[in-house]
Amino acid sequence: MSLSHLSFYSAFTLSSLGLAFHRTHLISALLCLESMMLSMYIALSIWPIENQATSFTLMPVLMLSFSACEAGTGLAMLVASTRTHGSDHLHNLNLLQC
């Protein structure tokens, strides 16, 4: 396993562990999701270069556009929950109260 594979595998693993264990604020969950998307983007950018496959060069651009849409939606949810509930704590967000 090369150093680049180890780096983005460990980045994805650490961000998923951060998402699993640090669920107090919505902004920390969004940051963990963004770091997961960033590590997947790096992996998809390196993979066609290593395999000399030109047909998969569009995949990182699609991944980046989905990541931007996910970030915009997450920030909109953060602003909406902060306005309605007063904070971004995830324990305040209850689906039964909405």
TrEMBL record:
It is an enzyme of class 7 (translocase). One of its GO terms (biological process) is ATP synthesis coupled electron transport. It is found in: Mitochondrion inner membrane; Mitochondrion membrane. The keyword Translocase applies. Keywords: Electron transport, Membrane, Mitochondrion, Mitochondrion inner membrane, NAD, Respiratory chain, Translocase, Transmembrane, Transmembrane helix, Transport, Ubiquinone. Its EC number is 7.1.1.2. InterPro entries: NADH_UbQ_OxRdtase_chain4L/K (IPR001133), NUOK/Mnh_C1-like (IPR039428). GO terms for molecular function: NADH dehydrogenase (ubiquinone) activity; oxidoreductase activity, acting on NAD(P)H. The keyword Mitochondrion applies. It is a multi-pass membrane protein. It comes from the Eukaryota. It catalyses: a ubiquinone + NADH + 5 H(+)(in) = a ubiquinol + NAD(+) + 4 H(+)(out). The chain crosses the membrane at residues 29-49, 61-80. Its main location: mitochondrion. One of its GO terms (cellular component) is NADH dehydrogenase complex. Core subunit of the mitochondrial membrane respiratory chain NADH dehydrogenase (Complex I) which catalyzes electron transfer from NADH through the respiratory chain, using ubiquinone as an electron acceptor. Part of the enzyme membrane arm which is embedded in the lipid bilayer and involved in proton translocation. Belongs to the complex I subunit 4L family. This is NADH-ubiquinone oxidoreductase chain 4L. The lineage of its organism: Eukaryota, Metazoa, Chordata, Craniata, Vertebrata. The gene is ND4L.
